[in-house]
Amino acid sequence: MFRTEAELDAALSEPITGVVETLSRHPGDIIFLGAAGKMGPTLARMAKRASDAGGVKRRVIAVSRFSAGAGDGEEAFTAHGVETVRCDLLDEEQVKRLPDAPNVVYMPGRKFGSTGDAATTWAVNCHLPAVVCRKYRASRVVVFSTGNVYPLTRPETGGPTERDPPDPVGEYGMSALGRERMFEFFSRSLGLPVAVIRLNYACDLRYGVLVDLACKVRAGEPVDLATGYFNTIWQGDASVMTLRAFDHCSTPPAVFNLTGSEVLSVREVCVKFGELLGTAPRFAGSEADTALLSNAAAGIAALGPPRVSSERLIEWVADWLNRGGRLLNRPTHFENRDGRF
Questions:
Q1: What residues are paired with 217 via a beta bridge?
Q2: d(CA 133, CA 122)
Q3: Which of 292, 287, 152 is nearest to 224 (CA)?
Q4: Within a 10 A sphere around the Cβ of 6, how many other Cβ atoms?
Q5: Which pTM does this prediction carry?
Q6: Residue 223 phi/psi, 5° resolution?
Q7: H or E stretch including 61?
Q8: Rounded to the nearest 5 degrees, what angle is found at the Cα of 19, between the Cα atoms of 99 and 57?
Q9: Cβ count within 10 A of residue 315
Q10: Which of 143, 49, 75, 145 is nearest to 103 (CA)?
């Protein structure tokens, strides 16, 4: 259990031996593009800690607009030895001036706000990869994507594997698939080694599907059961697997589903939260036949198994709420079924 955010962030950024070994095999600087999101600070910190543990001298660089100024956004990186560079990644001239690095983690993406401004979503998700691939044509790149490239599927199937054809619902999902296709094109045409990570969904106790559900249970709000099943993974495990993906960058790109090994039931998880939070859950509707799911077996085989089980993660989330831990108040909207965000 975690008493403070400092303890939580330390756990989220703790590198296992496999991460230290992976980064030792890939010398040179590491740059994180679009790093100021929910996962970026502890992911970059993990890379720094792993490099130090392996005795590898390198720059670890976080790139973002840092639009909030030089306050908490940049401090989350610089306090732990990660350099920061301000850059509007849609400005090609600014991208050209970014530091070179043989190891790139590509994190930019636009999801929320896509409905009503689809053009910006397509620019971020499909145009920006071309700009970055030309800049970092001599690097290896680990690319964040999403399980939203898959259609809704029946939970008893275990979810789509990487071999199943994408069939996204809605413009966000389509643009996310477009991002993957752009990296595939440049990987093939430039010989650029790439690994694509289809993440679905990370949880760090301050946000995530489990946090969304726990907050509704605690508040006595009815939980909509239409999307009755989901996947999730401890963010610390997702970071480990992301950095280990540098070992698998290839041409054409390697693709991995990154999530937990189980299909979880919304109803069953909420019942458990009710026991831990002392509030009986309320439900609305019933489970549809399908949900947005991913089969993580191949990713786990290549990148290693999650260390934190879903049972433990549920207990951690409940304990965090019971302690009054800070929340980001950024819902995942995992229950969305029409692809509109």
A1: none
A2: 17
A3: 287
A4: 9
A5: 0.95
A6: -95, 120
A7: strand 60-64
A8: 45
A9: 15
A10: 143
- Per DSSP, 250 falls in state B
Contacts of residue 12, defined as CB under 8 A and 6 or more positions apart, other chains included, come to 42, 46, 204, 235, 236, 239
Consecutive H or E run containing 231: none
Sign of CA dihedral 103, 302, 111, 220: negative
User: Would you write out the chain's pLDDT as a tens digit for each of its 341 residues?
Assistant: 899 999 999 999 999 999 999 999 999 999 999 999 999 999 999 999 999 999 999 999 999 998 754 335 899 999 999 999 999 999 999 999 999 999 999 999 988 877 788 999 999 999 999 999 999 999 999 999 999 999 999 999 999 999 999 999 999 999 999 999 999 999 999 999 999 999 999 999 999 999 999 999 999 999 999 999 999 999 999 999 999 999 999 999 999 999 999 999 999 999 999 999 999 999 999 999 999 999 999 999 999 999 999 999 999 999 999 999 999 999 999 998 888 88
Architecture of the domain defined by 5-204+232-260+294-302 = 3-Layer(aba) Sandwich (3.40)
Pair 101, 137: CB distance under 8 Å? no
C-alpha of 136 from chain center: 22
> Could you write out the three-class secondary structure of 283-326?
EECCCCCCECCCCCHHHHHHHCCCCCCHHHHHHHHHHHHHCCCC
| Residues 332, 230: Cα–Cα separation, whole Å | 12
Q: Is 319 exposed, middle or buried (0-12, 13-18, 19+ CB in 10 A)?
A: middle
**Cβ–Cβ under 8 Å, residues 135 and 189:** no
Q: What is the distance in angstroms between the CA of the first residue and the CA of the last residue of the chain?
A: 33
Helix H or strand E encompassing 84: strand 83-86
- Yes or no: say if 91 and 123 are a contact pair by the CB < 8 Å rule: no
Structure tokens at 277: 């939070």
d(CA 185, CA 229): 34
**Range list of H helices, 207-265:** 209-219, 235-244
Q: Are strands 229-230 and 264-265 parallel, antiparallel or unpaired?
A: antiparallel
